[in-house]
Amino acid sequence: MTVAMNYEPPPPQVADLEKSAELWAAFSLVEWAGLLDGVTLEMWEHIPEDFCRDHELDNGRLIRRESGSRGHQLASRRLANAIEDAAKKAVRAGAHPCLTVSYDVDTRLWEVPRSTVRRPDVLAYRCVESEEKLWAKDVLLVVEIVSKSSQATDTGQDNPDTGFESKMTQYARSGIKHYWIVRLKPDDSAVESIEQWRLGEYHGRYAQVAYWESGLSRDAVLTDEPFPIAISWSDLEF
């Protein structure tokens, strides 16, 4: 009789996940993702919400999101509040029928060939029904607050040899037209600068269209895209 040593059970299948979402909590999901050779959106829907909150789906791979610093969290809140005020004015003016501004919301960029779900620090999007999933096609603006630890992921150079793509590349590929890069001061005490990028019409890449820096520019943001937004540096103080 032959005894198989070091036996590893087969990875769970989608049918198993549909029977019991708790199955995901019983295993190391990152390890299972490798065995599954790619996590699909269908699988993502069955992963416990608490786990998804701290992860993103990058071309079928589960990746952990680092917790933002105190300054990062405060900047997210200030920016979301300021952009939301501008969005409400745009709706009242009739420029858009309905807009929502939020942060850390699952945003599905694409499903094939390998599913990708990101959670922008702040985003503005066309209103969707409460039961609908948010897709890139409805997103008008994404904002990422860049730190030393997140710079490569947010804005770094892509590496085709390893399959690495920055969020900046992925947002552009998914057709999100407007992207802001926000940088904090080295001591994490305030917003230092904001870069405004816009998707090129033909090249599928972002081009920088504006730059605001604390102490040098009067405004923190002053733009008409994707709707009129005016933010002062005092609006962002924390």
> What is the strand tally?
12
- Tell me the span between the first and last alpha carbons: 70 Å
β-sheet strand percentage: 25-35%
The main pleated sheet reads as: 6 strands, mixed
Order of helices and strands: HHHHEEHEEEEEHHEEEEE
CATH architecture of the largest domain: Alpha-Beta Complex
CATH domain fold name of the largest domain? tt1808, chain A
- Give the radius of gyration: 20 Å
Task: Work out the helicity level.
Answer: 10-25%
Shape from CA axes?
A: globular
- Give me the secondary-structure category: alpha+beta
What is the CATH top level name of the largest domain?
Alpha Beta
Arithmetic mean pLDDT? 85
Q: Can you list the strand order of the major beta sheet?
A: 3-6-7-8-9-10
Low-confidence stretches: 1-9
CATH superfamily descriptor of the largest domain: tt1808, chain A
**How many domains is the backbone divided into?**
2
Number of helices: 7
